[in-house]
Amino acid sequence: MEDQQSEPGSVTDPAAESNDDVESTAEVTDVELDDDTDVEGDVKGEAESDTDETDDDAADDDAADDEAPEGDAEAVAGKRAGRRKLSLRFAVGAAAALFIASAAFAGAAAQPYLLDRAEVATKLDIARTAGRAIHTLWNYTPENMDTLPDRAAVYLSGDLEAQYRKFIDAIADSNKQAKVTDSTEIVGAAVESLDGPEATVLIYTNTSATSELSPGIPQIKYLTYRLYMKRDQNRWVVTRMPVITSLDLTPRLQS
């Protein structure tokens, strides 16, 4: 329940007051007005006195300690040591507060920097994985083509892995007979986009293929792939890899 202030006149009735009380009040008022005491000066003096006393507390304590009897030397030394300890505690507390504030500011300022570094590290991981995938898929000899699908499966998703395995099975026999060796060099890689667990990467390659059917005349191509990748648990895998640039640089013999 809230406290309610009484209305003026609710406790006493002005009409019921006696004339004597009114005169008495007037007399008291006259006495206070006729007093020659400088009220303003007293108030100022009291305020200045309080200020001086506050400013001189430490000096008075030291003076009192110096005037103490010799018998109380140990007590005086104890009091001074206590004051020093108190001052030291204040200093340590202020230093600790400043350190905490500085650490909080440094943490807030470092957070965007750490996020940027984490994103850069993720992009590097994606680009390196994409480069290793292309290098594995398009580097083979007649001797290791049989194991190529299994080695490439580490970098491919289910559907793409099945498609690649089917492609290699279709060309394996003819490439073995012609002794085809395919060599692919990664000349550039760039993460095109990164959106949570999905990313696209551009891989730039120089590819050359040699065969005993055409000795001394390699087939040279400049190819650019766009790899669509996704995060599968703790690794990145390729889901699609269309060729977006194909430039045939194979030398042409003039008849």
UniProtKB/TrEMBL annotation:
Residues 1-78 are annotated as: Disordered. It comes from the Bacteria. Residues 18-40, 48-73 have a biased composition (Acidic residues). This is Mammalian cell entry protein. Its main location: membrane. It is found in: Membrane. The keyword Transcription regulation does not apply. The chain crosses the membrane at residues 88-110. Keywords: Membrane, Transmembrane, Transmembrane helix.
